[in-house]
Structures are given as structure tokens and as C-alpha cells.
Amino acid sequence: MELGRPELLPDDYYLANFHSLVGFVYDTYQDLLTEAERNWYESFTQCDNAAQRLYVRLLTRKGLVFRLSRLKYPEILSLDNAATQLAEQGLSVITAPPTLPVLLSAYTKPELISLLSLQHAKSKSRVDLISLILESNSADQQQYLRTLQSADSWIAIEGHAFWNLYVLCFFGNLYQDSSEFVLRDLGAVQYESYAIPKDCRAFTSREQIDAHMRYFECASLWDTINKKSVEELHSLLAQLPASIPNDSHLHRRLSRLQNSIARQLERIGELADALIVFTRSSLPPARERSVRIHLAQGTTVAASELLDQMLLHPHSEAELQVAIKLQKQVAKAAGKPVKSEPRFRPDTSTLTLTKEDDRVEIVAQRFYSRLGTCGYTENCLVNGVLGLFIWDIIFHPINGAFYNPFQFAPSDFYDSDFKIKREELLRKRFAELDEPLRFSARIMENFSVHQGKSNPLVRWGGLSYELLSIALQRVPVKHWQAMFDRILFNPRENMAGFPDLVLFKSNDDDYEFIEIKGPGDTVQQNQLRWMQYFSKHRIPCRVVNIRWAVDHSVSTGV
């Protein structure tokens, strides 16, 4: 995306950022880049400042072909000279587009009417005007083509594929782009300062680079194909790269896309094909969907065997929960009895409130604030305290964890290896929980020192000095320990699902988590798992079902 020039940044900020990104990759990946990929940046550096500015401006702008007269960049003194120089370096094409549709897209409706002498079609919409031009006879079309080509000077940027590759190597993904530099420089996003070893990079082989690039190309195709076409779904599958050993990021990315494709095949009735694709994925819900397909096909033995694997070796608590629910269906299909396990039911109460325009959680928070300090914290409080408690451990310079300055988390944060690689550091830090004053002091110091910086666990908008102060006083350290353990066991799943409110009553030293449910709302599965865990560790929590008072005058309940 192209950003306008921020007033607080120098007029060449975008060029400096381009050199920072591309220059870093050029220096760091010399052994993995092809000659053409290296030559692209070398050719760029041979251009003067004006040509470089024009190239970067257009490289990140929507569109493929541009009219020089329509470009407005005050900091570039001679667009014609810059365009010519880029063409000499093989970085642009300055000849007019050879096809009428492309030319038509570059002009406004009034311009087309004027240039092509189509005043009689003035009342038509732009779409209808273009249709009229494209449906005209061959001789007229050729005249239109020549007229539009000669009406302006043109430039089309070359090298987008090289730019994408450099971005991928720098960030390790194509979700981020050079706008990260701008957001950082403007202070909109603050990143922690961490050490990046000179030889540390997102990819260690050309095979990895190509595989990840292919994945992102396929992910982009997924958004454009006809999802009801079996042929297009299979064509996309055939283009997926093979997984690479020890590349957990690629493996996870491929599994997510395979799950999406398989689920679509299942929806359109291609069960056998869906089953094959699900077996390639190692991420939930692949095994769950496979069990359901086996049940639909009547292959109960296969369903039972796969379910046993889920029960014995679940990928996550969520998958285990699903597997337990599936037991009854599989047993019934196999004609076997199944022992019903008692379902966990959280403590629940009902509260009648006067209906207001605010969200139900806010209305409930307002009510409970009469009883003491009540925060609408949801996932912010416990995650935030943990993030502040282990801040330096999260950003500890583990080999391969950091390879660019725009990471809000180490690259392995959501992997099982995160905890394993930092086991000794975490063990020593968690020993501080035996000293509540030391524990609290660390939290409050980090809250002050790191205010506003990006951290995968900390959402600053949901934390305050007052909230942290009372939470650290009231919540027993054994409760913090239990909650921290579960989050770190599987951060990807367990960072979500916390109750909406936390209440610290004025008349005692106790506290409780409260999940608010408005009329018709139900407890989600990830919330239920946290509540069951709370129950096991005797952490106070309950569900409060809100009813609206009919007479709009009385609030009742506790």
C-alpha cells in the first residue's frame, strides 16, 4: 500500500525504508539469492535519487501502468528523466500499453469523451462508455488505441516479484510490508529492542524461500478461485509446496490451507477427496472432520481408530474436548454402548438489569462496580500480567527467534519449543512467585518501563495501574501460577477464553471472575475449558445470565 507523506517524516522516508529492507536482505541472503535477484537491487542503486524515488513510489502503489502527467510527487523534480533512467536500467517500461482495455482504464470518463470525440455518449456511465468503445469496429478501435497511446507519457514498473521475495526474506511473511517502518517511525507501533545476530535470518535454505513463496501464492489463489469447482480446488492442491522438515511455520501454514480446501471439498460432497486432503494436515480440525466423514461413509472402524488416536494423543485441549463428544456418535454407529461422562457445569446465577444502549458486559460492569472494583478485562488481565512478568524472557536472544526489528514476538512464541527452549529461564522466574512482593514489584516496574511496546501477551488498552495494583494484592500467587502454566502450555489456544469481568469486592479480600451472557448467548467451548480449569484449581469463577427488567426500573440478582 502507498502512504501519503507524513508531515513528521522526511520527504524521502519511503526511499530510506526501501534501502533498509532491501539492503538488509541483499547483504544477509547473498548465498541464497539468484543472480537476477541480486542484479535487481544493484540496478536500482545505479539510478540517481529521483529515479529511485519514483521507482519506490510506484512499486508499492496499486496499478501496473501509470500516466506520467497524473503522477504528483513534488519531491521528484523531473519525472520524465527519472522514468527514462529506470527504463535504461531495466526497471521500467516507458512505452504506451499495447491494448485498448488497459489504456481505457487509465483515463477518466471526461478525458475519454474529449480525446476520442465521443460527446454524443456523454450521458452514458463510464462502464457503458467503455463497452461502447470496445464494441466499435476494428478501424475505430485502432484509431482510439493510437490516440490514447499518444495522449500521454507512460511508465510500468518491472520487478514486483523481486520486491515480494525481498519482503518475504525480511519479514518471514507477506502479511507485513514497508509500512511497518512508517508506523514505527511515527510512534504508532513500538517494538521492543532485541538483539538480532548478524547471521540470523528467517530462512536458511533456498528451498525454504521458494516453498514459502509458493504457499503465499497459493493462499492468494484461494481467495480468487471458484470454490464450487472441484477442478480448481484440485489445481490449487497440486500447486502447494511440499512440507520441509523442521520448518514449523511452513507446516502450520500448509495445514491451515489444506484444512480450508478439504473442508470445501467436504461441503460440495467430495468426501473421498476431502478425506485424503485432511490426512495431509496435522492441525485441528483435520482429524475431527475425518472422523465425521468416516461416519457419513459408514466406515465406522476407521472412525473408531482415528478417534482413539485423538483421545490418546490430542493435538490440543480443544481437540480432546471434541473427541470426547464424538465418542457417543462413533459408539452408536458401531452398535456399542458408551459410558456417559458427567458434563462440567460452571457455577451460574441470574441477574436482572435495566436495559441500556451499551453492550451487556458494560451494563453488568457498571452494576458490579457498586460492589467494589470491577474491570471489563476479558483476555487482558491474566495474559497481561504474564507478559509483564516474563517480558525479558519473551525477548531473550534465543537463536533464530529474532531476524528483523518488527517482531511483536519471537518467531517460536506459538510453538511448543518456546517453553522448552526457555525452560531454565522460566523456572528461575517462576520461583519469584514464592516472594509476592518481588513478583508484584517486577510487574509494576515493567508496566512503567515498557508502556506501549508490542508484546504478544500484553494489550495495553485493557490494563491500568489501578487494576494491576488491586489484582496483585487480591489474586493469590498460586492462582497466578496455575493460570500462567496453562497459557504457556499452549499460547495459541489458551490466551483466549477468559471471563469478561473481574470483581474485587470492597467488603472483603476476595475476588472472582465473571462471565456475562446476555439473553440467548451461551458459553463458548474455550471459555468452558478455562472454567473447568478454574474449578480444578479453586479459582473463583461463575457465569451470570443477564435478563432485562420488564418495567425498566429494578436491578436484581447478585
Describe this protein's structure:
This protein has 3 domains: 13-165, no CATH class; 204-334, Serine Threonine Protein Phosphatase 5, Tetratricopeptide repeat (Alpha Horseshoe), CATH 1.25.40; 348-557, no CATH class. It contains 27 helices and 9 strands. It has helices at 13-28, 35-45, 49-59, 79-88, 100-105, 109-115, 126-134, 138-150, 160-171, 179-185, 206-222, 230-239, 248-267, 271-280, 286-297, 300-312, 317-334, 360-368, 380-389, 391-394, 417-421, 423-430, 436-449, 465-474, 477-489, 491-494, 525-536; strands at 65-67, 92-93, 154-157, 348-353, 372-376, 501-505, 512-517, 541-548, 556-557. Strand 6 and strand 7 (512-517) form a beta hairpin. Helix 16 packs antiparallel against helix 17. The model is unreliable at 1-6 (pLDDT under 50).
Q: Which keywords apply here?
A:
Serine Threonine Protein Phosphatase 5, Tetratricopeptide repeat, alpha+beta, single chain, 3-stranded antiparallel β-sheet, 558 residues
Quick synopsis:
This protein is α+β, with helices and mostly antiparallel strands and 558 residues long. The chain is 52% helix and 7% strand. It has helices at residues 13-28, 35-45, 49-59, 79-88, 100-105, 109-115, 126-134, 138-150, 160-171, 179-185, 206-222, 230-239, 248-267, 271-280, 286-297, 300-312, 317-334, 360-368, 380-389, 391-394, 417-421, 423-430, 436-449, 465-474, 477-489, 491-494, 525-536, and strands spanning 65-67, 92-93, 154-157, 348-353, 372-376, 501-505, 512-517, 541-548, 556-557.
